[in-house]
Design brief:
single chain, two-stranded antiparallel ribbon
Length: 143
């Protein structure tokens, strides 16, 4: 499937052009991208029911960094931005950058990290070389 590389977004006070993130930007802003994916991804279907103040400042900080990374050099955000403008910008970033695929990658990475952590913890936990028999009250050493 081919994705568009830029998109004009009509906002209440004007139009901006957003571009898809190149790999270098996506890597540099990975934590921001994951913050948006996890936080806003779960809210995406019901964005219209939320207001700006319903989200933590850290989520909005990630949003602004990614918006600025997405703006075409010749584009500037018109002011003021209303809530619906933010939703339009979020939708455009989702469409341009296939954020849903990133969510899948995050889930796979999280699962892989959990398995690795479990394995590491298993290696650092001291293993007993003897067992105690409750019925006899004697310790049995392996042969």
């Amino acid at each position: 499937m081919l994705y568009p590389i830029r998109q004009n977004v009509r906002l209440s006070a004007g139009t901006v052009t957003l571009r898809a993130w190149p790999a270098t930007v996506a890597d540099a802003h990975l934590s921001d991208l994951l913050t948006l994916t996890v936080t806003l991804g779960t809210l995406r279907d019901e964005w219209a029911n939320f207001q700006r103040g319903d989200l933590e400042p850290g989520v909005w900080a990630a949003f602004w960094r990614l918006i600025h990374a997405s703006l075409e050099a010749s584009s500037a955000l018109p002011r003021p931005l209303i809530w619906n403008d933010r939703l339009e910008l979020l939708t455009a970033m989702w469409e341009l950058n296939d954020v849903e695929e990133t969510a899948g990658k995050l889930m796979a990475l999280t699962q892989r990290s959990a398995r690795l952590l479990t394995r590491i913890q298993g290696q650092t936990t001291p293993r007993s070389t003897s067992s105690f028999s409750a019925s006899s009250g004697r310790s049995h050493m392996p042969a």
